[in-house]
Design a protein that fits this description.
alpha+beta; Alpha-Beta Plaits; 30% strand
Length: 97
């Protein structure tokens, strides 16, 4: 399955309810799994972003649906990156002329 990295920044609403972030993350993990995805890691981080989630989804549509759902809750703004393993990248590079 394709890999995705989701970078999140808490909104004003999200930071006001910071004590419940663990429950929100658990609910979002379940929602992602219900769409056919698999979360492999979630980190709270310091720096430009507040939270990073790493996971796998069957396709871009599932990843996009999930990202839109997270954003629609109003607690975080998301940036989603599609990630390639080095083996996948090597396959891409082999196709270059």
């Amino acid at each position: 399955m394709p890999n995705y990295i989701m970078l999140m920044k808490w909104t004003d609403q999200g930071i006001k309810d910071i004590k419940n972030v663990a429950q929100r993350v658990q609910g979002n993990v379940k929602a992602f799994e219900a769409l056919g995805g698999k979360v492999t890691a979630v980190y709270v981080v310091m720096g430009e972003y507040d939270l990073i989630a790493i996971g796998e989804a069957p396709n871009d549509e599932v990843a996009t649906t999930f990202a839109l759902g997270v954003g629609a809750q109003g607690n975080a703004r998301t940036t989603t990156l599609k990630a390639f393993t080095m083996d996948q990248f090597a396959g891409v590079v082999k196709k270059l002329p």
